[in-house]
Amino acid sequence: ETGVTQSPTHLIKTRGQQVTLRCSSQSGHNTVSWYQQALGQGPQFIFQYYREEENGRGNFPPRFSGLQFPNYSSELNVNALELDDSALYLCASSEAAGLLRGTEAFFGQGTRLTVV
Amino acid sequence: AQSVSQHNHHVILSEAASLELGCNYSYGGTVNLFWYVQYPGQHLQLLLKYFSGDPLVKGIKGFEAEFIKSKFSFNLRKPSVQWSDTAEYFCAVRSPVSGGYNKLIFGAGTRLAVHP
User: Fold this and answer.
1) Nearest CA of chain A to the CA of B33: how many Å?
2) Residue A94 has pLDDT above 70, yes or no
3) β-bridge pairing B110-115 and B10-14
4) In this predicted model, what pLDDT tens digit does every residue of B6-16 receive, in sequence order?
5) Count of pairs with CB atoms under 8 A, one residue in A, one in B
6) Burial of A30 (0-12, 13-18, 19+ CB in 10 A)
7) B6 sits in which H/E element
8) Do A102 and B97 touch (CB under 8 A)?
9) pLDDT digit string (tens) for B51-85?
């Protein structure tokens, strides 16, 4: 177990709907990153939150948004769901660090989102 | 753009066979390198990591990897695989990104099946 928990584990939504996914980070970690893992692919970076601010974003449209709360837990929101949004969504927590500190990211078990 | 290439998408081995999974990355500066494993139905787990120092890195469960800077490679090896090594393996690179945050860039993964 990594100490990173995500909810729900599975979710089915209809195209056009909105969804909120949740993540509780590991104790002592103030940085949360979200990744999308489509079937047969590696995880792709969506964005990162550090101390409640988004401080980095991958190549995802604005309908993917997030929040980080004072306890460092986080939400991923996706509006206007499309069929291609069907994927495993992973949350990872870590200590804020540059390369020199060499910290690692700990992943949750993911939320499997199916859009129909 | 930074990228990570894993050469083998599917590998099938018999127990006790040796394993080598290839990984090449495209970024030429300072990098952190990782191998993650995803067992069926479980979260991504860190196998090993390279930040600096000895380019031969030993991880959990008998895995090791060698960082060869001149070849931009970080291949994963295990001398003798077991049935329990059946899983998907991901190589990942972390490098500095403008704006002060860091993200993991994953390869597409290699699905390993070990037969008794």
Assistant:
1) 10
2) yes
3) parallel
4) 988 999 999 99
5) 71
6) middle
7) strand B4-6
8) no
9) 889 999 999 999 999 999 999 999 999 999 999 99
